[in-house]
Design goal:
- By secondary structure, the protein is of the alpha/beta class.
- 36% of the residues lie in helices and 15% in strands.
- It has one domain: NADP-dependent oxidoreductase domain (TIM Barrel, Alpha-Beta Barrel).
- The strands form 3 sheets. Strands 3-4-5-8-9-10-11-12 form an 8-stranded parallel beta barrel, surrounded by 5 helices.
- Helix 2 links the parallel strand 4 and strand 5.
- It is globular and about 50 Å long.
Length: 330
């Protein structure tokens, strides 16, 4: 097993690699935000390859595949020695209807629902404690933030979870939560296209809160391999076929990917992930993979440090193409 450099995830006591394995797509098809069909054996191979290459954390969620992603993660890790097992992070608060698995899931954060969810995730993952348990989205069922963050703190005190975090929450919400219990981590979307979370990341840097960003490659747009033809041929059961970044905003997004290509060629790897890691406060970035080969495609970003000149070039590319929104440079 290879070794990668690790960094403290806030004050959790966990040290994580700069990149982690994202398990959204391996949830497979048959639900609202699927990435299309996926072979479970290939998913297991991808996870095991990432761990063998030194990646020491996996990020999943109950909603990914409606529980299936967590089950696949458990299968991939089942026979690993305890010393070699990566941290497993999962999320709660997005609840589906078993009678209509393709319906829009609901953002439910009532204390009773959270407790049902954590027990279900523990069972699917086959663990006694979840390393990091995150609120996926702000509640949509009327549950006050103070109520759901208190139950998250209670789960931590009870030992069901080691650390608690928020995902997709803004600075005022972070402030409210932090008055009740320390926010151990934040998981915001962040990429050279979607730069809106810079304010939240700065808050985390000032409050001892770890940050793991998701979609640093903007769901494939910034890999350098995405094309107009690929966007047009996305299957109907791939959520990206309906998303604005892949339809009405596709042209400036692909223009930015093309503008980043010379930097990528200099370094021999896509710079999208490394760009997010250059920001003060970012601990790690989540990168998805559906095969071992895809893991090898983004893994070098774990050790790539962009220079000031590189960051200036990225900023100029963002300005020139007009892609996305938010500050263009760390």
């Amino acid at each position: 097993m290879e070794k990668l450099t690790t960094t403290d995830l806030g004050t959790t006591g966990m040290e994580i690699t700069a990149v982690g394995f994202g398990a959204w797509a391996i949830g497979g098809s048959g639900w609202k935000y699927a990435w299309g069909g996926q072979d479970d054996a290939e998913s297991v191979a991808a996870i095991r390859h990432a761990v063998e290459r030194g990646v020491n954390w996996i990020d999943t969620a109950a909603i990914y595949g409606l529980g299936h992603s967590e089950e696949v993660v458990a299968r991939a890790l089942a026979d690993l020695p305890l010393a070699d097992r990566p941290y497993v992070f999962t999320k709660c608060g997005v609840v589906w209807d078993e009678s209509d698995r393709t319906a829009e899931p609901q953002h439910v954060m009532s204390p009773a629902s959270v407790r049902r969810e954590v027990d279900a995730s523990l069972r699917r993952l086959g663990v006694e404690r979840i390393d990091l348990y995150q609120v996926h989205w702000p509640a949509g069922d009327g549950t006050p933030l103070e109520a759901y963050w208190q139950v998250m703190a209670d789960l931590k005190a009870e030992g069901k979870v080691r650390a608690i975090g928020l995902s997709n929450h803004d600075v005022p919400q972070l402030d409210r939560a932090d008055k009740i219990a320390h926010v151990d981590s934040l998981q915001p979307p962040f990429s050279a296209i979607n730069r809106a979370a810079a304010e939240e990341i700065a808050w985390c840097a000032d409050h001892g809160t770890g940050v793991i960003v998701y979609s640093p490659m903007q769901s494939g747009l910034l890999t350098g391999a995405f094309t107009r033809e690929r966007a047009a041929s996305l299957p109907a059961d791939d959520w990206r076929a309906r998303a604005g970044d892949f339809t009405r905003l596709l042209e400036p997004n692909l223009a930015l990917a093309d503008a980043l290509r010379p930097i990528a060629e200099r370094h021999g790897v896509s710079v999208a992930v490394a760009w997010t890691l250059a920001w003060r406060g970012v601990t790690g970035a989540i990168a998805g993979a559906r095969s071992p080969e895809q893991v090898d495609g983004w893994l070098p970003a774990a050790t790539l440090r962009l220079t000031d000149a590189d960051l200036d070039e990225v900023a100029a590319a963002i300005d020139h193409t007009g892609a996305g929104s938010g500050p263009n440079r760390p």
